[in-house]
Amino acid sequence: MSYRLETTRRFEKDFRKLASDLKRRVDKEVRLLETQPYSGKRLRGEFEGSISLRLGDYRVIYWVDESAKRIILLTVAHRRRVYD
Questions:
Q1: Where are the domains of the chain?
Q2: What is the CATH code of the structural domain delimited by 4-78?
């Protein structure tokens, strides 16, 4: 079963700041989450419950809501600042 993608305002703001080639890559990889929602790394500590999808030096942080079959994209940023 396929999951529905949803974005937060923060994700949309961060996504707009990316270079166009990186936007295409993020879009492509995020679409794959619709069928493989747990392909990223589960986070611990302050970010427990979130998952990080690695795209080179960038990370997409998201949650999976199993009950509603949706993926909530929280943010996308360079790995140095994504966890701030």
A1: 4-78
A2: 3.30.2310.20
41-42 sheet: strands from edge to edge: 4-7, 70-78, 58-65, 51-55, 41-42
Q: How far apart are CA 49 and CA 64, in angstroms?
A: 8
CA neighbor of 76 nearest in space, from 10, 25, 20: 10
pLDDT band at 49 (very low <50, low <70, confident <90, very high): very high
Cα dist. 13→1, 4, 16 in Å? 29, 20, 5
- 83 pLDDT tier (thresholds 50, 70, 90): confident
pLDDT at residue 67, rounded to an integer: 96
